[in-house]
Queue: 4 jobs
Job 1
Amino acid sequence: MSTYYTVFTTPLGEMTLQADADGLLGAWFETQTTQPKELGQYTESDSILNNAIKQLQEYFCGERTEFNLPLSAQGTQFQQQVWHALTTIPYGETWSYQELANAIGNPKAVRAVGLANGKNPISVIVPCHRVIGKNGKLTGYAGGVERKAQLLKLEQKE
């Protein structure tokens, strides 16, 4: 299946978005290492990508708290389960890795949940930035801990 990508500028830096005919495959800040080597064909006219840009712009302006996009991220069944659970963390709230493991019904899988969270290819839209350490500290974020702090601060403006 063909993949398409585009790049756009956010208040937190450039993001690359990738999609196929089924949905959004990825959204990465320029510093993220989880971006695939092959992105497909560059485009500025894909409806999924354009809708994602519109919704992300609304999010960064404080006008959107939920995303409504078809998602098509590729991962293992366990990763998919974790990524789906991430989408249930309410805007402006944070969960610990333990809470995320509990949410998928696997409370002993805290480390595995952390690894799956770190491999989430759809930054911001699948809000892995809302997961923090049990002690309340900001832990790793593929887009950078500083960017994670800025995203959480943005969501506290209500």
Job 2
Amino acid sequence: MDRRQLGVERQMADLMRRQKIGERSWNESTKMWEIAGPAILTSVAQFSIGFVTVAFVGHLGGLELAAVSVVQNVIEGFVYGIMLGMGSALETLCGQAVGARQFNMLGIYMQRSFIITIITALLLTPVYVFTSPLLKLLHQSKSISELSGKYAIWVIPQLFAYALNFPIQKFLQAQSKIWVMTIISIVALAFHVLLSWVLVTKLRYGLLGAAIAGNISWWLVVLAQMVYVVSGFFPESWTGFSSLAFKSWASFIKLSLVSAVMLCLELWYYTLVILMVGWLKNPEIAIDAISICMNLQLWTLMITLGFNAAVSVRVSNELGAGRPTGAKFSVAVSVVTSTFFGILFTAAILAAKSYFPKMFTGKHEVIRETSKLGYFLAATILLNSIQPVLHGVAVGAGWQFSVALINIGCYYVFGLPFGALLGYKFKLGIEGIWSGMLAGCLLQTVILLLNVFRTNWHKEARQAEERIRSYGSSPLPQNERVGMALISEN
């Protein structure tokens, strides 16, 4: 009887443990989706503003479409990565400050980020002004370069909208106040469609009308979000403009720069892959094929970027609150959920690899080449369901410098040279170049996973508390609640 009773007690204990884990998983998943859901919708809505512009400009003519595409994919793609990276320092600082209940620091952090991103926008303005000669230097056609140069100057106001948009987004995300931001983005997208139709189609203002519509729509997003922030909905985290925003800059700028470098190394990797494909013999079909695949990858990436934002907020909140076990559990739930969606997308691509190219082109050669790349696209989507989540963990924990070094090693020291060797030396063409890219992504993902598994989360929680104190404008008192949380978890 004793043994039988002991066995029953063990079974009951195991059942209660599983129920507890199931309950924790459900609670964590709910918190994650509260951030990831609206973050996904916001990303899609804001991304679609540029997509709508291209759709309207495409009816003006091939030259106009090429000019806008070059500005969006080359100039704005280059600038967007830098601006988003410079604003990403807030993900670490604001998230950990919320966890530590130091809400008064959030507004000051955001104002510091405003100053840094506006200065960055001023420094990047010459890229827009000199777009035409830069494109000619890259051996683009004279007609496309000159028209792109005009359009780039007309959309400079969007550059400064980015400068304000990203800090506000991080401020709101850290406090899980995203639904208002999502609604603003969706309304702005609908307004942009109407305004583009009026200016481009009805009044026939051409590229100038497209630029004006984009400028107004982006500033509508920024001003609406700013009104929301300053209208009294955040009495603890927004107490008005403060001179403290001009203090304690050194560490803040360092984290902003490291965040920008980490993100840009990631984004420019794919740009370089496309350039490498363009250096192949007879590259037209290859570029069309890889562009179709990259566009599909970008849409699936919108989903994983939502998980990126969610895990960044959850990890930074938990570490700031002194709950290292909670941070570790958030990572596990986010990785599993995002990987599940990655598997679904991968299966869909493999099942439709002979059909999805027909949605983008009617050219038989491009359809055949794109279908061949279906396996590579599926593998890339699977890796990209894990990788952005790990990047979100890195941002939430403040590991930007380490990840930047990993990116350099995996992408630029290993991935690109390996792809060039396969593509050019062994004459595997686009498949060889993409294989090198995949190898770099796989190596980076494995290294990041090992780092996450080996992390001492109690140490990270202590470092988060120290970061909150050192990044403040004045010495902060010891956070007793964080200290008690760490003691209880030990």
Job 3
Amino acid sequence: MHDDRQAHGDAVRIERAGDIAIVTLNRPTRMNAVNGALRNALIAALRTLNDDAAVRALVLTGAGERAFCAGQDLSEAAEVSWQNLVPWLERQRAMYQAVRDLDKPCVAAVRGVAAGAGFQIALCADFRLTTPDSRWGQPEVKAGLASIVGSYLMTLHVGHTHNVQMSLSGELVSGQRAYEMGLVSSLHADAELMPASLARARALAALPPTAVRLSKQRLRAMTQPGFDEACVAGIRAQLECYADGEPQRVMAQFLAQRGTQKNQESK
């Protein structure tokens, strides 16, 4: 196994295990939350690996024990205004599309939290393997944001009742519950999660690549119109949310509380 980290920066780590590429979201101190550096590095890494004939499948995971990806980094989101909201959301869309555009199988190995943007990244993968005590959800409404793209992606995996409950409550569910709902492909003990994910990736990598590529292209074509419409609807909805000012208020309050907590811990 070798490390290609220098090619895409520290925010994303790439390792090779034969014809498998392991892509690790690498901001463990921030629960692998998405910021500009991670977003750009992930898009670049996935495009490079998709073009590499030596790579037959990918495993996508998060560094550390706490999270696959806890969502959008609120420090970045709090600085977004309605004037620059559209290009920011377009970069988010490009990140999800980079996962969707993979012509090779992608296995998400999820330990800890997969929430918001992290939840949506995982939903764009082909297989989702996790532990029973992981945490999954779509908490956008709690941050004053409409649940639009995430609620669309959930329609590809769960029924309307589960979608409504998760999108409107913003509550996270356990990996066990996510599996029962159909969001998760399989459950594994913590120590077995990465071995099982690699085994699944190897089995997929052994399949005829042209058949896999064409099957993935067809699956993407079947869902692309809905995804595109959801992204456009998401831009409209978030512009209205930001115009109302609720996301800015919620995020400012969260960041203030986090700052107070850090000051107390440092004393």
Job 4
Amino acid sequence: MLPRSGRQLRLAAHGYEANIASIGATLRTLTIDGRDLVVPFGADEVRPGYRGATLAPWPNRIVDGRYRFEGEELQLPLTEPERSHALHGLLAWAEFEDRLVLDDRVVLAAVILPQTGYPFRVEVEVEYRLDTDGLHQTVTAHNVGADAAPWGTGPHPYLVAGPSGRVDDWTLTLPASEVLTVTPDRLSPVAVEPVTEHPEWDFRTPRPIADVFIDHAFTELSRADGVAEVRLTAADGQGVGMAWDERCPWVQVHTADTPARQETHRIGLAVEPMTCPPDAFNSGVDLVTLAPGATHAASWRIFGI
């Protein structure tokens, strides 16, 4: 019988092991030498929220699910009803088909069909690949429709620094000098501001997260050879890192606060490189417009420390 999270694809190489679930092209588990690098979930579980899902054709939120594109007013279903937003795209619960399955590499694909609020046809290919540098994920969009389409993407892993402890116990390095402030009730974007004006979110110098709440997008990332890198470490120096290039000028970071559900409360740190910020379908900031026949690719990497 097919597990609730879909077909299971196992990758193993160089001490890393990953399990990919076909629903949402989801990263279900990732370990190095048996140590978790992301918060896992069971193959026969319905995926908890967006844990490990591939986000497309937008990451994060579209405020009120409403936007204008090419002169047309469009309304998406509200998939975050408690805040009345359209959340994390259209493929998180889609079944992806296999394109390639190897011991250290898989390629999955799905097509976004024209629908209410997104009348475009985009083929999405997701590659996961293991090498000595960790787990690489690449998301490639191909506009197979007749009209230009708005596009954005990103992943949704919850990183784990050590086998014990929670977010409060770990040290974060986040090389971002600007943060997108949001409304406290709906998390709707307000303004991009220097982190110096919000020192609680300034992690350019590594420091423990402690009890800080974070659910914000960051930008103006310091890079080495074009690559930005976030690190999360435990007291013993072990941890996990995530790296990406300029195709993702934004990163969403979330401390996974669920005080009403202690089993998930602050058990992992969501780190989500993004090609565009929240509500980019309205602001236009870093929004990709895919012409008919055009492609766009973005990638990131998770590695053990």
